[in-house]
Amino acid sequence: MPRSSRVQYQPSALGTKQRKPEDQHEPVSNKRHKNSAEGWADALLQIVDNPSDPSVVYCDEDVIAIKDKYPKAKHHFLVMPRQRHERYQSVRDLTTDDVPLLKHMERVANKLVHDNNKVEDEENNDNGSRSEYRYGFHAVPSMKHLHMHVISQDFDSPCLKHKKHWNSFTTTFFVPLEEVFIAVEKGDTDFQYRENRLKEGLKCHKCGRAQANMPKLKEHIRLCDTACGGKKLLDS
Ligand code: AMP
Predict the structure, then answer these.
(1) What is the pLDDT of residue 121?
(2) Using CA atoms, how far apart are residues 62 and 47, in angstroms rounded to an integer?
(3) Count of Cβ atoms closer than 10 Å to residue 142 Cβ
(4) What is the Cα–Cα distance from 195 to 202, expressed in whole angstroms?
(5) What is the mean pLDDT of each successive set of 10 residues along the chain, which is 236 residues long?
(6) pTM
(7) Side-chain half-sphere of 180: how many Cα atoms within 13 Å?
(8) Distance from the CA of 70 to the center of ligand 1, in angstroms?
């Protein structure tokens, strides 16, 4: 992946946007944050301040993208605003002012997918088999600083270990970017009520069949030939 590549983008007012103090609020406070070890939840903020970090796969004035350190699928990126601001803690903080930023994050995600597709086409001799991706945000993030997941739908990764991992990407706990655009327009971006989705029973994200445990689920998704469709959610 080229490190300094740029998408077509007008820098616009993103980098100069002034945030009013009253717009700021405490970092998303929830059980997942409270359980985080000191400093662990700040790791993304440290990378935003250090674009030469080896995990960075794209960077421009307004947006930075990295490889997820604990990928939950073959391809898993995090796309984030460069602006390090208290207000950019989670999807809950977004307003219509942030639509240009979100659109830019989407363009960067498209570029990452496009570049990955090219590599996959070369590896597969253009046989048409490409990874499917979804873009979205966790309803209640565990890490500080707004980050959009760009994740392939194979979920083939040793880092995907627990029910919470699985449910965070395959239930409505994962808020797709298109839903965020609608929520921002409505002025209702608080998805915290979806936290209980993490406790749901395990189901295949393609055929919806219940699975007894993670090893059985992993074996099942490897063999399940139901079309994924990329945008499908089990419970939406
Ligand atoms: P969430 O806050 O639940 O939306 O997800 C945070 C994501 O950050 C997870 O997918 C983690 O694997 C990932 N992550 C945690 N620590 C790091 C790190 N130091 N560098 C890159 N990604 C990380």
Answers:
(1) 87
(2) 14
(3) 16
(4) 15
(5) 38 38 34 53 92 97 97 98 85 95 98 94 82 96 96 97 97 98 97 97 96 96 75 44
(6) 0.84
(7) 28
(8) 7
Q: Which two tokens stand for residue 172?
A: 């409505």
Length of the chain equals 236
| Start-to-end C-alpha separation, the chain | 33
The pocket around ligand 1, CB under 6 angstroms, is made up of 43, 55, 66, 68-70, 78, 138, 141-143, 147
Decide: 90 and 139 in contact? Cβ < 8 Å: no
145: left (phi over 0), alpha (psi -120 to 50) or beta: left
Residue with tokens 């400093």: 39
Please give the distance, rounded to the nearest whole angstrom, from the Cα atom of residue 92 to the centre of ligand 1: 18
**Residues 161, 71 contacting (CB under 8 angstroms):** no
